[in-house]
């Protein structure tokens, strides 16, 4: 099978960070791009979500998030019965000076 070569422009910092993650996954950039393109074709353009098997510290719920979960589990928090758009409009309204 012959292959096409592509030249793409990527922010250098993003490229370095991506290479670190890909190295942990045992892949290179070319393999990652091929996987992305195959998945895009297979799913008719719908994106996929690739995850590193080692969770990042920022993805693990912190103490504030865990406290919010506990508050909801104990019947606290506010209930909103409407659309997402309506809720965002309410939040923006509440922030207005």
Please describe the structure with a list of short key phrases separated by commas or semicolons:
97 residues, mainly alpha, 2 domains, 4 helices, 52% helix, 0% strand, elongated
What does this structure look like?
This protein is mainly alpha-helical and 97 residues long. The protein folds into two domains: 7-57, no CATH class; 61-97, no CATH class. Helix content is 52%, strand content 0%. It has four helices and no strands.
How would you summarize the topology of this molecule?
Layout lengths: L11 H13 L4 H14 L20 H11 L10 H12 L2
Give the number of domains: 2
Total helices: the number is 4
| Main pleated sheet | none
What's the pLDDT, averaged over the residues?
83
Q: For the record, give the distance between the C-alpha atoms at the N and C termini, rounded to a whole number.
A: 63 Å
Helical content stands at 40-55%
**What is the SS-derived class?**
mainly alpha
Beta-strand residue fraction: under 5%
- Counted beta strands: 0
Uncertain spans, ≥5 residues at pLDDT below 50? none
Q: Taking Cα atoms only, what radius of gyration do you get, to the nearest Å?
A: 21 Å
Please trace the helix and strand order, writing H or E for each element: HHHH
Overall spatial form: elongated
Offer a concise description of the structure.
The protein has 97 residues and is mainly α. It is built from four helices and no strands.
């Amino acid at each position: 099978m012959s292959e096409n070569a592509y030249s793409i422009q990527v922010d250098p910092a993003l490229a370095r960070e991506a290479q670190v993650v890909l190295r942990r996954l045992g892949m290179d950039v070319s393999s990652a791009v091929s996987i992305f393109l195959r998945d895009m074709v297979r799913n008719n353009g719908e994106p996929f979500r690739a995850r590193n098997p080692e969770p990042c510290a920022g993805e693990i719920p912190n103490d504030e998030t865990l406290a919010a979960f506990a508050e909801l589990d104990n019947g606290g928090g506010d209930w909103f019965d409407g659309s997402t758009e309506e809720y965002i409009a309410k939040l923006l309204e509440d922030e207005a000076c």
